[in-house]
Design goal:
The complex is a heterodimer of chains A (about 100) and B (about 200). Chain A has about 100 residues and is an all-alpha fold. Chain A has helices spanning about 5-25, 30-55, 60-90. Chain B has about 200 residues and is mainly alpha-helical. Classes of the chains: A mainly alpha (about 100), B mainly alpha (about 200).
């Protein structure tokens, strides 16, 4: 069996990233769109940790921690907006979120 | 061959049985990708959330294989423990009957799929063209130095994390805490009944 190299991790991260992009671009449910964004951020984190391992220092891992902080903030604010929106329009479909088009 | 990238020599680093075997890598990455596919295809949002938890835990396992136990712990505690609970709460708050009977995909989903496939092709071409680039740098790093020392000095030590966080990255750390404060305030204001 071939030894696992950095490239293997990058391929897995690319697959997760593309899955997240497909989710963001095609789904209608806002909650699932937000989950796809989490998937994308996870792919980026995996890349960062793999490169950190490749270079042999901790900077990539620290950046991954900061990305995690950002993901937590994004989830909190995004879900807050979602709840406020659901209270007003009784829907969570992306297609119907077009208040700015008035 | 770089001993850190070569699983056969990892036993020398960790002092026990090799952890980073190809079998575990393929199992964890397969689980992660299957979970990702389930996230974007399930009709029920709760099922998507559970699939996302599977993906997050598999990615945490991959972090462990990359000798990043602190990141793996943060992944499990913050993502699988914190963010996913938040997601499940919101799904249960807003999940209406209509959403589960509705169309899953929007009208322009073929365009989105084509765009995502183009992105995948871009990644594949980048990896094929830059194939030699990625592992070679890592090999140069450990040449002529004691592998045991590298493993001790560089990987998996939380106190080194602390030294970086409160030394070189203090400013970024403070900015991150400010970001979290703003996010908390934003979430509280956003979910109030009357603003």
């Amino acid at each position: 069996m071939v030894p696992i190299t950095t490239l293997h991790y990058l391929v897995v991260a690319a697959a997760l990233f593309v899955l997240g992009v497909i989710g963001v671009l095609t789904r209608r449910n806002v909650v699932i769109v937000l989950m796809s964004i989490e998937l994308i951020l996870n792919a980026v984190n995996l890349n960062l940790v793999a490169f950190s391992h490749m270079w042999g220092n901790l900077h990539g891992q620290l950046f991954a921690i900061f990305v995690t902080v950002d993901a937590a903030a994004e989830a909190a604010v995004g879900l807050g907006i979602l709840i406020a929106f659901f209270r007003n329009k009784e829907t969570i479909n992306v297609d119907e979120i077009d208040l700015l088009k008035w | 061959m770089n001993p850190i990238l070569n699983p056969a020599m990892n036993s020398a680093l960790s002092g026990g049985a090799p952890v980073a075997t190809p079998f575990f890598f393929y199992m964890l990455s397969g689980l992660a990708v299957i979970g990702g596919i389930l996230v974007i295809t399930r009709r029920n949002a709760v099922h998507s959330a559970l699939a996302l938890i599977v993906t997050l835990l598999s990615v945490a396992g991959l972090y462990l294989m990359l000798y990043a136990p602190f990141v793996a712990g943060v992944q499990i505690i913050v993502y699988a423990g914190g963010i996913m609970v938040l997601f499940l709460f919101v799904i249960m708050l807003v999940n209406i009957e209509r959403a589960s009977k509705d169309r899953r995909f929007n009208r322009i989903w073929p365009i989105g799929l084509v765009a995502a496939c183009t992105l995948m092709g871009l990644f594949v071409s980048a990896f094929v063209k830059g194939r030699a680039l990625f592992p070679d740098r890592g090999m140069a790093l450990s040449e002529g130095s004691n592998t045991q020392e590298i493993a001790k000095a560089l990987y998996g030590e939380v106190n080194r994390f602390g030294q970086y966080t409160f030394g070189q990255y203090t400013f970024a750390f403070e900015i991150a805490s400010l970001l979290l404060l703003v996010a908390i305030l934003g979430a509280v204001i956003m979910t109030k009944k009357k603003i």
